[in-house]
TrEMBL record:
Subunit details: Part of the signal recognition particle protein translocation system, which is composed of SRP and FtsY.
Record's function text: Involved in targeting and insertion of nascent membrane proteins into the cytoplasmic membrane. Acts as a receptor for the complex formed by the signal recognition particle (SRP) and the ribosome-nascent chain (RNC).
Name used for this protein in its record: Signal recognition particle receptor FtsY
UniProt enzyme class: hydrolase
Subcellular location: Cell membrane; Cytoplasm
Organism field: Rothia santali
SRP54-type proteins GTP-binding domain sequence ranges: 274-287
Major subcellular site: membrane
Length: 301
């Protein structure tokens, strides 16, 4: 958490500085409120949430009868935290019930950081002494399975894959889940291919992966990985995937490389699904649980 704060603040301080400068104006008139909304929009908070935030701040300034900058800054912090919604359940469902392994599907378009996230998460689980199997269901590129296997080897976890490029992703996923069940593993984590060019194809493929895997054990978690640096594009992806599978959590990667952390708010608002994890770099330790208050403090730092 300490690291999350440090890493975010460097890249996101733009938003905080901009807002604080605006709130410190002698008089907060309509122009200033408009500029505040504009600043929130620029940080990718999304139109709806930005507008709601400004409205609730305006209401509070009126009701509480103060526009003292320190006070308004405190209100801003509180309203931002409310918007990020600490009440959402951010616990990962990694365990199955009884003999069933927990089944985690990791979905998202190519290049967003799926495989890296699977590797980082595997490392955390191994450190917690969980037993785990990885499934390389991105069978369209041999390199994808190689990359997953490299992560698996690094943390000492077996990767189930097909040697054959273009093999059926669902059969690899099934095989991985079956292996996990046979070996009594706690969890099987399945890396999938995401090709958005063809929504019907994606729907078929992910739908089938899920259906076939569920012949072995219920899917406990579907993590959608979104690259925070892609802004509105990430939103478009999120909506498409949400139509295809029932997303249970968002992983927002590359937050280390953007000043637009507000995308957290926009995506949760749009999908009604919590951000559960954030990626803060390319290294094996650069994954953290998402902490709403720490995140807002980092934004406002
Ligand atoms: P996939 O195609 O979705 O599986 O994406 P990859 O896991 O291969 O990641 C694509 C690139 O993004 C790689 O170069 C990763 O090292 C990089 N990457 C993944 N997560 C992060 C992150 O949180 N921060 C940064 N800076 N880079 C990341």
């Amino acid at each position: 958490l300490v690291r999350l704060r440090a890493r975010l603040s460097r890249s996101n301080s733009m938003l905080g500085k901009g807002l604080l400068a605006l709130l410190s104006r002698e008089k907060i008139d309509q122009d200033v409120w408009d500029e505040i909304e504009e600043t929130l929009l620029m940080a990718d908070l999304g139109a709806g949430p930005s507008q709601r935030l400004v409205e609730s701040l305006q209401t509070r300034v009126r009701i509480e009868g103060t526009d003292d900058p320190a006070h308004v800054k405190q209100m801003l912090r509180e309203e931002l935290i409310r918007l990020v919604d600490p009440s959402m359940d951010r616990e990962l469902a990694l365990d199955g019930a009884g003999e069933d392994p927990g089944v985690v599907l990791v979905v998202g378009v190519n290049g967003v950081g799926k495989t890296t996230t699977v590797g980082k998460l595997a490392r955390v689980m191994v450190a917690e002494e969980k037993s785990l199997i990885l499934g390389a269901a991105d069978t369209f590129r041999a390199a994808a399975a190689d990359q997953l296997q490299t992560w698996g080897n690094r943390v000492g976890v077996r990767t189930v894959r097909s040697e054959q490029e273009g093999a059926d992703p669902a059969s690899v996923a099934y095989e991985a889940a079956e292996t996990a069940r046979r070996e009594g593993a706690d969890t099987v984590m399945i890396d999938t291919a995401g090709r958005l060019q063809n929504k019907a194809g994606l729907m078929d493929q992910l739908g089938k992966v899920k259906r076939v895997t569920e012949k072995v054990a219920p899917v406990t978690e579907v993590l959608l990985v979104i690259d925070a640096t892609t802004g509105q594009n990430g939103m478009v992806q999120a909506k498409v995937f949400a139509e295809v599978v029932n997303i249970t959590g968002i992983v927002l990667t590359k937050l280390d490389g953007t000043a637009k952390g507000g995308i957290v708010v926009a995506i949760q608002d749009e999908l009604g699904v919590p951000v559960k994890l954030v990626g803060l770099g390319e290294g094996p330790d650069d994954l953290a649980p998402f902490d709403p208050e720490g995140f807002v403090d980092a934004l406002l730092d």
